[in-house]
């Protein structure tokens, strides 16, 4: 509460407005007053955001975040604006954004109508769908093979909800176990605690490429429910969403977005030089022109 009051006092002295709720300043005003922006990152969401060292995150979403931060610096005329980065998970990413702990997340978060009641989303920057990663010796080739088996996912993910519905609709008896993050969920499959891992297809390709034994894993099943990824900002902050959307629009129009895509999805990436060899999908290619922020259905 002391930090919020300090920021509020600084804004009042500067003649800047507070948000209607009185709880948080609008992001750009908050950042200007603190001379700092705080961004969230995922620790194991290859190739979007993942760690190379104890606190060194890299990836497609990290590069997008940096471009947005550069535009914040330019708009606020603060070239030396400090950037703090904190790790977030599927469970805490929305609460920590809403309560003002951090200001922006570009990770592997699906833009959904339900989440849109709590946060706002940028222009969609990726489209993914749920599939399964399993051991090659598991005998699992599709969803019907999951009957009576345990499937891993991450708590709070849309993948769990999609697969639960599919299983119910097709009378497949599936049990679930949850990892605290993507790496933990993968370990549940590798050590035999789960028969398969249900996540977005691109995450599965990245996890397999960077696993200790990629040849022992395979990705199976038709794609369930194509879903858009987008950056998250606080709800009701039109000015900051406009800036974020402006950055993404600029990158899409200039060809820089396509170059970033090729860098992370069609080229060798650190740490081991794995190549996902994943061409840009038709939905994403179309959104380079449409630049929609429409949520998943």
Adjacency order of strands in the biggest sheet: 10-9-11-8-12
Gap between N and C termini: 38 Å
Mean pLDDT: 90
Structural class: alpha/beta
Tally of separate helices: 10
Secondary-structure element pattern, one letter each: HHEEEEHEHEEEEHEHEHEEHHH
Task: Assign a percent range to the helix content.
Answer: 25-40%
Using only C-alpha atoms, the radius of gyration works out to 20 Å
- Which blocks of ≥5 consecutive residues have pLDDT under 50? 1-23
Say what oligomer this is: single chain
Record field, number of beta strands: 13
- Main beta sheet, described? 5 strands, mixed
Strand coverage percent: 15-25%
Explain this structure:
The chain has 10 helices and 13 strands. It has helices at 2-14, 27-34, 60-76, 93-98, 158-169, 182-190, 201-209, 238-254, 256-265, 282-290, and strands at residues 36-41, 44-45, 49-51, 57-58, 82-87, 104-105, 119-121, 126-135, 149-154, 174-179, 196-200, 217-229, 232-234. The longest helix is centred in the N-terminal third of the chain and has 17 residues, at 60-76. Residues 1-25 form the signal peptide. It comes from Ralstonia condita. Pfam families: SBP_bac_3.
Core attributes:
10 helices, globular, 5-stranded mixed β-sheet, 297 residues, 23% strand, 3-stranded parallel β-sheet
Topology:
Elements: H1 2-14, H2 27-34, E1 36-41, E2 44-45, E3 49-51, E4 57-58, H3 60-76, E5 82-87, H4 93-98, E6 104-105, E7 119-121, E8 126-135, E9 149-154, H5 158-169, E10 174-179, H6 182-190, E11 196-200, H7 201-209, E12 217-229, E13 232-234, H8 238-254, H9 256-265, H10 282-290
Parallel strand pairs: 1-5, 1-6, 9-10, 9-11
Antiparallel strand pairs: 2-3, 3-4, 7-13, 8-11, 8-12
Helix pairs in contact: 1-2, 3-8
């Amino acid at each position: 509460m002391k930090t919020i009051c300090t920021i509020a006092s600084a804004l009042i002295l500067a003649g800047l407005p507070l948000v209607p709720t009185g709880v948080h300043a609008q992001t750009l005003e908050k950042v200007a007053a603190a001379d700092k922006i705080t961004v969230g990152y995922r620790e194991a969401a290859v190739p979007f955001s993942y760690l190379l060292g104890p606190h060194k995150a890299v990836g497609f979403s990290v590069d997008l975040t940096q471009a947005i931060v550069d535009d914040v610096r330019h708009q606020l005329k603060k070239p030396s604006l400090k950037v703090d980065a904190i790790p977030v998970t599927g469970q805490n990413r929305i609460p920590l954004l809403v309560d003002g702990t951090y200001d922006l997340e570009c990770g592997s978060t699906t833009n959904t109508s339900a989440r849109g009641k709590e946060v706002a989303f940028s222009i969609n920057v990726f489209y993914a769908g749920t599939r399964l990663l399993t051991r090659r010796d598991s005998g699992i080739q599709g969803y019907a093979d999951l009957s009576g088996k345990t499937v891993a996912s991450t708590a709070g993910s849309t993948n769990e909800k999609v697969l639960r519905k599919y299983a119910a609709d097709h009378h497949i008896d599936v049990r679930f176990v949850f990892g605290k993050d993507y790496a933990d969920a993968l370990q549940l499959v590798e050590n035999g605690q789960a028969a398969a891992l249900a996540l977005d297809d691109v995450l599965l390709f990245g996890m397999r490429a960077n696993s200790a034994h990629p040849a022992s894993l395979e990705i199976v099943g038709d794609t369930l429910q194509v879903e858009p990824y987008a950056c998250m900002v606080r709800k009701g902050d039109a000015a900051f969403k406009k800036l974020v959307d402006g950055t993404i629009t600029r990158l899409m129009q200039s060809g820089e977005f396509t170059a970033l895509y090729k860098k992370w999805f069609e080229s060798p990436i650190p740490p081991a030089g794995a190549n996902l060899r994943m061409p840009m999908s038709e939905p994403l290619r179309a959104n380079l022109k449409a630049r929609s922020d429409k949520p998943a259905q």
